[in-house]
Amino acid sequence: MITLKGQHIYLRALEPEDLEFVYAIENNEEIWEISNTQTPYSRFLIRQYLENAHQDIYEAKQLRLAICLLNSDVAVGLIDLFDFDPKNSRAGIGILIQKEEDRTKGIGTEALQLVIQYAFHQLQLHQLYANIGTENSRSLQLFSKFGFQKIGIKKDWNLNNGKYQDEYLFQLINFKK
């Protein structure tokens, strides 16, 4: 079994050629509320980020992978492990499929499954968590599908379009460890 390859997609490390893809995602104001971004990123900063993307998760405390369709090297989304905490054996997880028309094709489902397997088997993590806005029904459904449990709510956590919105904290514990 290849850990980061599924039936329809595979996950790969970011490459310098992903500059325009990452630039487009990071500067898409429609998704800033999901990523808690407030300012645009320059190509220069993203180029620097990509130059350091080779760092090990233990060094960078983050792992960002491109989601690609099989037989293609073109990225359709990103999936992240962030706030990696080896002492407590946990990490946050986030996912984004760039184009709206690709968000209902099972790409996110397969990518999330692969990263959960990687986190629990390769990294030996005890738990993963996700922060999901209460209005984000697709993400709530996706993470629930894999057994993530809603363990808390952060009231008035994010200010979006002049209105405070709540955010759920979801958690998945690896009981097979």
From TrEMBL:
Residue stretches making up the N-acetyltransferase domain: 9-171
A Pfam family it matches: Acetyltransf_3
Record-level Gene Ontology MF annotations: acyltransferase activity, transferring groups other than amino-acyl groups
Alphabetical keyword list: Transferase
Record carries keyword rRNA processing: no
InterPro entries (alphabetical): Acyl_CoA_acyltransferase (IPR016181), GNAT_dom (IPR000182)
Domain of life: Bacteria
Name assigned to this protein: GNAT family N-acetyltransferase
